[in-house]
């Protein structure tokens, strides 16, 4: 799957007149050192811009299926594609702009900006899904699996009302599904500009 994201983003970057440098994937169990600190299974999958690697704990996919109610191989593919979306943001300079802007914001504003960063990664995951579908790599029901996974990891789904929207950092189930669907229906990264969108 990682190789397939490389093919898709490699072609899209070439169309943009630039080169895509693929990330590396680190699969671990328990904990593992990264340039962003110790990768812990409790943190879930994440992308580290410092070493340009995607970290996946093997236990997370069981949790995705059992705890979050999002089983299936395409639900897992969505998670990986979302983290690859962060790598795309890093390659395009979006993460650097985010970091510079976030330093000047209070916690509430930083959280709101973080939501936009995460929703764009969801949209980028959908862009990959669009091209996977075009090449007949999806089985019936795969798109729905991806949408279920996106909704399952929404802040409101995970916290079950224990965190107010001001504390959200990844977006609601509805927002995450919407932006994943946006990328999946268009296949165009230019439609993933969550930072200027008035309504996310």
Question: Topology of this structure?
Answer:
Layout: H1 2-15, E1 24-28, E2 31-34, E3 37-40, E4 46-48, E5 53-57, H2 60-66, H3 73-92, H4 94-102, H5 107-134, H6 142-152, H7 155-159, H8 173-186
Parallel strand pairs: 1-5
Antiparallel strand pairs: 2-3, 4-5
Helix pairs in contact: 3-5, 3-6, 4-5, 5-8, 6-8
The whole-number mean of residue pLDDT values reads 92
Number of domains: 1
**Largest beta sheet: strand ordering:** 1-5-4
**What proportion of the residues form beta strands (DSSP E)?**
5-15%
Q: What's the helix count? A: 8
Q: Could you name the ranges where pLDDT drops below 50 across 5 or more consecutive residues? A: none
Which structural category do the helix and sheet elements fall into? mainly alpha
Could you name the key traits of this structure?
single chain, 200 residues, mainly alpha, 3-stranded mixed sheet, 8 helices
Verbal overview:
The chain is mainly alpha-helical. Helix 3 packs across helix 5, helix 3 packs across helix 6 (142-152) and helix 4 (94-102) runs antiparallel to helix 5. It has helices at 2-15, 60-66, 73-92, 94-102, 107-134, 142-152, 155-159, 173-186, and strands spanning 24-28, 31-34, 37-40, 46-48, 53-57. It has one domain. Strand 4 (46-48) and strand 5 (53-57) form a beta hairpin. The protein contains eight helices and five strands; from the N terminus they run H-E-E-E-E-E-H-H-H-H-H-H-H. 54% of the residues lie in helices and 10% in strands.
At a glance:
This protein is mainly α. 54% of the residues lie in helices and 10% in strands. It has helices at residues 2-15, 60-66, 73-92, 94-102, 107-134, 142-152, 155-159, 173-186, and strands at residues 24-28, 31-34, 37-40, 46-48, 53-57.
